[in-house]
Design brief:
15% strand; Rossmann fold; alpha/beta; 19 strands; 4 domains; Heat Shock Protein 90; Beta-Lactamase
């Protein structure tokens, strides 16, 4: 430094040095800040890298879990890029198709060509709807040809993703599974079901055939027993005849049990809903067993609770059948000097409880587990000692279940048994009775008591079996009737046309022409205006007397035009009831206004009118009340004839609806039945199928006396008839 420097110069140098030191300190601070920021950035970068690695690891684990789940379920994954047509297929998908288990890609058109031609339209429609946005997802089944040319069934579930602003999907993803084995099992199960139904139908047809074939000779046996009982016999012979009658009744009971079991198992057992008195039914159930109990010195105690209603609604015949089965077992398995009791009392839930108890041999706990199975008794020694088939309890259990109850058993070997059940029987103010089977002597007494009712009646017996013909003539003779015999349906029609016939007993299965067809021929001639000479009634009473006793046989006879029905073996009590019913129906018969036969209407020669438009249905889902196209076709397009037919039919509708309304108010079963039947026929003639079906339902309700059902159905029919009347009015204008 120069000694010549002035203090001022030194001071300036010191100031400059201070500024430089301050600037250097500032830079050092900046460097420190930058170093801290750099360390922070390095830490952030490290955290981001770690997060990314963790996310990728978690994603890999999710993919692994998804892959394992798809593999475990046997599902193949696919993804379709709609814009490019490229389809990604997972390894499992390729394996299902018979290829190497490796991921692959193909074009969607190549894949669609492998589909079964019958399945392509449905799948195309689903895919188009999913792509367009009409649906978000779909599931379907289709057949596809594998790479080794085998057809397999695939089930596919898919959904759309990556939709654009218009809602169109750019990508579809989904899974598919091979369901060929499931389909095979379904087909096998369906075939087994069809085979079972076929076997069940065959069994039912077989039982119907057996029923007819057994009932026909059994009718002869029981009838001959009845005739022999009424003849001069020694005490020993009368004892033998009594044993024969008991055996025949047992055989008939066994036949009825087998048929009842078949009906229940096939779901064809129908319940009646009639009004009856509980006390009467219990008495009728006990009556036939009093003699057996007396022979064994058994005491039968009947306890009826005093607060039971006088009348209830249900099926008295099936209730009596259950009670008879339980009482018969109680008498059979109770030793001499024992006791049998029947208790009937109101149930807590409003129904009626029944109990049959005895002091008999009892049933072990192990035996109780199978006692209600068909053809099962406690053990083989029971069958050898007491007899029977083991059907009684099986049928009783099923009938109680059918009537809404459940049979209960409490028993201890050596101390007796108690069978109980509760039925949901509703009370009713009215009372009705049901006829039960009678023994041979009681049947003869019944015939004697009814002889004045039918005395002088001329009866046509249409029966091809000589023994049954003989028995029918003998029964009718005891009733004071005279008979004419026909051996087939053609002979029956000819005998009826000759005149003088007051009533027809019509067998169903006859040669040449069966009873159903013969009845329809007779009714057709009556409807056409033919009346045989010497006959006052326009409607001849016809009673079906047939061995056909399966479900639906009665309905077939009624549909053919018969007025009453009784099955073989013929019970005189049931026969006289059927005869009275048929005669009452014919006596009060109201012939329907005749509808011109469509084929006989003369075609109009004048100018054809304009074709009336089809009348629209007033109901949202109801079909047109009349099929005008079919009706015009029947009339060869003759609008004038159609107008005349419409006018006549409208008068018929008004007449029959008024009659049905009056019949309901007066509960006149005869008028209700005949009017509903006539209306059904007239409506069917003009193709008013829905109204005809409703009339058919009314007719069935009237025949059974089900007035509550009749009252509910009549307004429905009236509404349909109103629609029909408007349609016919348009035709007649």
């Amino acid at each position: 430094m120069s000694t010549d420097a002035t203090p001022q110069t030194l001071q300036q140098a010191l100031a400059t040095l201070a500024r430089e030191h301050q600037r250097a300190e500032h830079y050092r601070n900046q460097v420190h800040v930058l170093r801290e920021e750099l360390e922070t950035l390095r830490g952030t970068a490290s955290d981001a890298s770690t997060s990314r690695l963790l996310a990728e690891e978690e994603l890999d684990e999710t993919r692994d879990r998804l892959s394992l789940a798809l593999e475990a379920a046997g599902l193949g994954l696919w993804e379709w890029s709609v814009d490019t047509g490229d389809v990604y297929l997972s390894a499992r998908w390729s394996e299902i198709m018979g290829d190497l288990a490796a991921e692959s890609h193909c074009q969607v058109n190549d894949l669609m060509q492998r589909l079964h031609p019958d399945d392509v339209p449905a799948l195309n429609a689903l895919l188009s709807e999913t792509i367009s946005g009409a649906r978000q997802r779909y599931d379907t089944q289709f057949r596809i040809r594998t790479y080794d040319n085998q057809w397999i069934w695939m089930e596919s579930h898919g959904m759309a993703s990556d939709r654009d602003g218009s809602g169109r999907a750019h990508r579809l993803v989904g899974i598919s599974a091979d369901i060929t084995e499931r389909k095979r099992l379904q087909d096998t199960t369906e075939q087994a079901r069809q085979d079972a139904e076929k076997a069940n139908r065959s069994k039912t047809e077989f039982l119907a055939s057996v029923s007819h074939e057994v009932r026909t000779p059994l009718n002869g046996v029981m009838g001959l027993i009845r005739l022999m009982t009424d003849s001069t016999l020694t005490d020993e012979q009368r004892h033998w005849i009594t044993l024969m009658d008991d055996s025949a009744q047992t055989l008939l009971g066994l036949l009825n049990d087998i048929l009842d079991l078949s009906k229940v198992e096939a779901g064809r057992m129908e319940l009646d809903e009639v009004t009856f008195n509980i006390v009467d039914e219990v008495g009728q159930a006990c009556g036939p067993l009093v003699a057996q109990a007396s022979a064994k010195e058994l005491t039968i105690e009947v306890n009826i609770h005093p607060q039971l209603p006088d009348a209830v609604v249900g099926d008295p015949a099936k209730l009596r059948q259950v009670l008879v089965n339980l009482l018969s077992n109680a008498v059979k398995f109770t030793p001499r000097g024992g006791r049998v009791g029947v208790n009937v009392f109101p149930a807590a839930n409003g129904g009626v409880s029944f109990e049959v108890r005895d002091t008999g041999i009892g049933i072990s706990a192990e035996q109780q587990t199978r006692i209600f199975e068909a053809f099962t008794q406690a053990d083989a020694s029971t069958t050898r000692k007491y007899g029977g088939t083991g059907l009684g309890l099986a049928i009783s259990s099923r009938l109680v279940t059918l009537m809404g109850g459940h049979i209960r058993l409490v028993s201890e070997p050596g101390k007796g048994s108690s069978f109980g059940f509760t039925l949901p029987l509703q009370t009713d103010a009215a009372r009705a009775t049901d006829l039960g089977p009678l023994s041979a002597p009681m049947e003869l007494e019944h015939l004697a008591s009814r002889s004045q009712t039918f005395n002088g009646t001329q009866v046509l017996v249409a029966e091809d079996h000589p023994v049954n013909e003989l028995l029918m003539r003998e029964i009718l003779k005891k009733l004071g009737c005279s008979t004419v015999v026909a051996r087939n349906g053609l002979e029956a029609i000819a005998a009826w046309k000759r005149g003088g016939i007051d009533l027809i007993m019509m067998d169903v299965q006859m040669p040449e022409l069966n009873g159903l067809d013969a009845t329809q021929e007779i009714r057709a001639m009556e409807n056409g205006g033919f009346t045989p000479p010497g006959v006052a009634l326009k409607h001849t009473p016809i009673v079906a007397v047939t061995a056909n006793a399966m479900t639906g046989d009665r309905e077939k006879c009624m549909a053919a035009g018969m007025d009453a029905y009784t099955s073989k073996p013929v019970s005189p009590q049931a026969l006289t009831q059927a005869m009275s019913q048929a005669i009452d129906i014919s006596t009060h018969w109201q012939p329907a206004l005749q509808t011109p036969m469509l084929a006989s209407i003369e075609p109009s020669v004048g100018q054809p009118g304009s074709t009336p438009a089809r009348t629209a249905s007033t109901g949202a889902n109801l079909p047109p009340p009349v099929n005008l196209d079919k009706l015009r076709h029947r009339l060869d397009g003759d609008n004038a004839a159609l107008a005349r037919l419409a006018t006549v039919t409208r008068r018929q509708l008004a007449h029959h609806m008024a009659a049905l309304t009056t019949a309901l108010a007066e509960q006149d079963q005869i008028v209700a039945t005949t009017s509903a039947h006539a209306l059904k026929t007239a409506l069917a003639t003009i193709t008013a199928e829905r109204a005809s079906a409703l009339s058919n339902g009314l007719e069935k309700a009237a025949r059974k006396g089900e007035w509550a059902l009749f009252g509910r159905a009549l307004p429905v029919l009236r509404g349909e008839v109103d629609r029909l009347d408007k349609a016919l009015s348009a035709l007649g204008d």
